[in-house]
Amino acid sequence: MKKTLTLLLILFASTYLFSQSFEVTHETYGQLSNDAEYTVVGDTSVLKLETHLSIKNISGSSINSKVRKYLVSEVVGSTNDFCWGMCYPPNTYVSGIVPLATGDSAMFDGHYTSNKNIGTTVVRYTVFDNDSINDSLSVVVNYQVTSVGINMMEDIKFSDAYPNPANDYAYFNYSIPQGNSNASLVVFDLLGSVIIDKEITNHQGTLKINTYNLTNGVYFYSLITENQTIFTRKLIVNH
After folding, report:
1. Three-state secondary structure call for residue 115
2. Residue ranges of the domains in the chain?
3. pTM exceeds 0.85, yes or no
4. CA 214 – CA 86 distance, rounded (Å)
5. Looking at per-residue confidence, does 192 or 236 come out higher?
6. Which pLDDT score, from 0 to 100, does residue 181 have?
7. Each residue of 66-89: pLDDT tens digit?
8. Are 221 and 238 in contact (CB under 8 A)?
9. How do residues 131-165 score in pLDDT, each as one tens digit?
10. What is the pLDDT of residue 19?
11. Do domains 5-146 and 150-237 have the same CATH topology?
12. Residues 29, 32, 38, 44: what is their CA dihedral angle, to the nearest 10 degrees?
């Protein structure tokens, strides 16, 4: 079964308070503001979800940095850990000191193991100056694990969106077995809000969705059938 792992990034700031000393950059989506939030999505076939961040000292002096992990909410039966300077077990919530000279960067890694438990665990990671703890920058990561229908996935054929990036329309070629009902394609934005919920009435053909009224940016679409999420993929809109 094809592994599905999609990263959903939410580039917004809950406040406009920025660390004076740290710059945090996502490996794909660039520099993150304080309290930026994004989602890592996988299904129960994925062994581990991961997030990778580069943390840079942009101050004029060396910093004794630490990272704090705070569990906003947690799926029962799941585990999570992180690496900052070294890797820590799940029951560690504050790292040891990692010295950062002016202009230096180090990699932070967050790991989430669902143990096949469905749901979303929300973790806030905060990097801070150990000698001035209010000098900090936080990132919130939603680790979201969905169910997967193995037999259905083997029988369903569903193309990636095209064109992608989309301008006015996006198209999908598909074939869904006769035994599957209540199929729909759901498009949602970076905040997880449903933008389009398109019912699929035929068992095969080409599905067309309107994107002309969507603002430029990153969206995600999921195929839902028999109340199960079969996959989640990324759609870019660029007018």
Report:
1. coil
2. 5-146, 150-237
3. no
4. 43
5. 236
6. 65
7. 999 999 999 999 999 999 999 999
8. no
9. 999 999 999 998 988 776 544 555 788 999 999 99
10. 54
11. yes
12. 60
Chain Cα centroid distance, residue 97: 27
Nearest to 162 by CA among 171, 154, 153, 174: 171
Single-letter amino acid code for the residue at 75: V
* Partners of 113 in the β-ladder: 79
DSSP, res 44: T
**Sequence-separated (6 or more) residues with CB below 8 Å from residue 213:** none
Q: How far apart, in whole angstroms, are the C-alpha atoms of residue 186 and residue 91? A: 37
Distances from the Cα of 13 to the Cαs of 21, 29, 38, 51, in angstroms? Answer: 17, 15, 11, 19
Please tell me the distance from the alpha carbon of residue 201 to that of residue 30, in angstroms, as a whole number: 39
Tokens of 4: 């599905």
In the DSSP assignment, the letter for residue 159 is: P
Give me the residue label for tokens 């969705």: 209
CATH topology assigned to domain 5-146:
Immunoglobulin-like (2.60.40)
Q: 210 near 24, Cβ under 8 Å?
A: no
d(CA 18, CA 35) in angstroms, rounded, equals: 9
What b-and-e string marks burial along 168-198, b requiring 16 or more CB atoms within 10 Å of the CB?
A: eebebebebeeebeebebbbbbbeeeebbeb
- Does the domain at 150-237 match CATH 3.40.50.720? Answer given as no
Q: What is the 3-state secondary structure (H, E, C) of 201-220?
A: CCCEEEEEEECCCCCCEEEE
- CA dist 127 to 31, 101, 200, Å? 15, 15, 45
Q: Which of 93, 72, 199 is nearest to 143 (CA)?
A: 72
Cα–Cα distance for residue pair 34/88, rounded to 1 Å:
24
